[in-house]
Amino acid sequence: MLINNNKQILSHKDLLLITPPFIQINTAYPATPCLKGFLQSKGFEIAQLDLSIECIIKIFSSDNLQDFFNHAEQNKRNISRNAISILRQRNEYLKHIDAVINFLQSKDLSFAYAINNNILPKSTKADIQQDLDWHFGVDGIYDKARYFATLFLEELADFITECIDNNFGFSRYAEQICLDSVDFGNIIKEMEKDTLITDIMLKILHQSVKIHQPKVIAFSIPFPGNLLMAIKSAKYIKENFSEIKIVIGGGYVNTELRNLNEVRLFDFVDYVCLDDGELPLLKLLMHILHQTPDLKRTFKKDGNEVIYVNNAIESDFNHNETGIPDYDDLPLNDYISVTETTNPMHNLWSNGRWNKIALAHGCYWHKCSFCDTSLDYIKRFNQADVNIICERIEAVIKQTNYRGFHFVDEAAPPALLRKLANELINRKISISWWTNIRFETSFDEELCKLMAKSGCIAVSGGLEVASDRLLIKMNKGVNIEQVTIAANNLRQAGIMIHAYLMYGFPTQTEQETINSLEVVRQLFANRLINSAFWHRFAMTIHSPVGMQPALFEVERLDLQNDAFNKNGCNHIDKKGCKHQKFESGLKTALYNFIHENGFDFNLQDWFNFKIPQTTIPPNYIKKIIKSQNKNKLQKNEQK
């Protein structure tokens, strides 16, 4: 280890793990801490860089904001009225930006009082229709201030997107371009464009590479909105640090690039790894640093062709063996918590510092027909021992000083949650936690109360189409009655619920879509769910629907063989309705339900075209709850 003249500690790392921009800004994404902890246990020197949060901190600083305003002033033809309003108030934005970021990082909570006193400037878009005192209460000083500060940041983000870099987004960059990147040439064209945002990123990247001097750099690319910046970063490294080997992997790679044959990608990277990174990266580091021959699930270039090498005989590591995540060298106190809505459940994804760990690998159900059940991250299920999970929780608390945990499982097994809750209570480990579940009958009253006692504050789960016929067709394994009963048990225990909703599933009719909305309305009206989000069904080639479309009465439209990404595919649904026309009405209705509005509206009020009357009885959900309560009473009388 060396120290240069600028007092920076220089090291010679085997591997630098990087999370590329942009991803959630309130907490560290778990991929690099998990891989770092594992690979260090195998004797390698590992560093990590959250390039996403580092860029956000720089972007939303007075120094760089001044550069943005200067650039916009010189190029302000045809900008919106909103952007002009922000430009006119630039001095006010510059005056407050550093204080707002400090507040959102929880470094100066006293600034909340000034924020609530309307000290921050507002653009022409700032039009708050809600009664915030009703939502936050007169004592909700910090929550209300965080909401106002978030609006302030969102105004600046809109300005940056319009005037500085139209690919910018808080949790994505050029997402739509990468989603549609059938031709890798489009990615190459985008990489040639430099903006003030990409300049900031490359300066941070350059400094980190100089400090760590890694032999290998690995980019974890979880989503399409991380791809372009990852490849642009790789290009920069090739041009300026040509001796460093570059590898990419992560969720986007695992689903989209499994049939990779794009040789031009290897002008920027040396290797592409699939699925769990522990064994492939371990083998790759041994291959690069010690010239061992074996590789695991790795693409590389051979001559003018892309070849796939999978000649290592070892099996993937069991979830018990993956070790303790290592958050060292991440700026844990610099993450930015925002409040995007007044709904506390909806805000969990963007507010708070959540240590992210998984209780198990894969999904214990792995049967849903819309899911990528043929891929390793879903189909290979194994869970960690509850003692090991608790040891990981205690170790991560010591590292981060945070006691909030998001268990990022595909679906947390109820039996494991029962054991975990008991062990947390027995060990006297005080945490708050939330996770994803299936709304099944195992979530009885006893389990839900036990989960709450152990620190569970919320769950999310798939209600999907809210139609019994379609739930059977998608092999969800639950029906509306079971979902209602499980939700009632969770809510009675004080646990908040977020529901994932879907529309446009094969053969779904207009009547079923409207009936689904009515079920959702009743669940909200009876306070069984706190928040939700509609997703439009998308066919993937790795799901049962994509692999056997005829069974689901649709026709799959394949991409050409030389396509860069090969996962999502279009389809023809001759029996279903025109799903896209329902999008606006469904989302508008849901937005109001989330904010406890519009329960007494006629469903027709949400749509600007004629819809069928719902056939769901108005007391459908209430009757299920009443029947459940009656059964509980009878059981108690029999005891």
Provide a descriptive summary of the structure in words:
The structure is a single chain. Strand 10 and strand 11 form a beta hairpin. The chain has 24 helices and 22 strands. Helix 20 (480-492) crosses helix 24 (620-638). The strands form six sheets. The protein has a seven-stranded mixed β-sheet with strand order 4-3-7-8-9-10-11, sandwiched between helices. A six-stranded parallel β-sheet has the order 12-15-16-17-18-19. The protein is α/β, with parallel strands linked by helices.
Using brief descriptors, characterize the structure shown.
single chain, 639 residues, seven-stranded mixed beta sheet, 24 helices, 14% strand, globular, disordered N terminus
Summarize the structure.
This protein is an alpha/beta fold and 639 residues long. The chain is 42% helix and 14% strand.
